[in-house]
UniProtKB/TrEMBL annotation:
Residues 17-106 are annotated as: Disordered. Residues 58-106 have a biased composition (Basic and acidic residues). This is Uncharacterized protein. Residues 21-46 have a biased composition (Low complexity).
Amino acid sequence: MTVRSVDMQVMLPKVSHVGKQQSVQQQAPQNQQDWMGQQAQQNAEANQKKVLQTPQSEDAKIDAQREGNQSKEEQKKKQKNKSESKDSKKETSNDPHSGRHFDIRV
């Protein structure tokens, strides 16, 4: 296929335009891959920051659990004190004369 001089004059200015289009087409997959890599990195950084932050509702749940644990411990202590006081009352209630008279020494 021969190219005539008139055709050459028309094709020559279009060569630079076609060259630009081809380079854009060849670089498009690489550019897209770079862009997706940047997006993935930004998402990873955002997720990493999200892990460090706790919503207020979760803080409230944690506080409620701590308070619940503390109240359970207090209830156990109260029950233990009650059982100890009942045991001490049982020991003193065996003697009918104890606790009625005071011995005072000067």
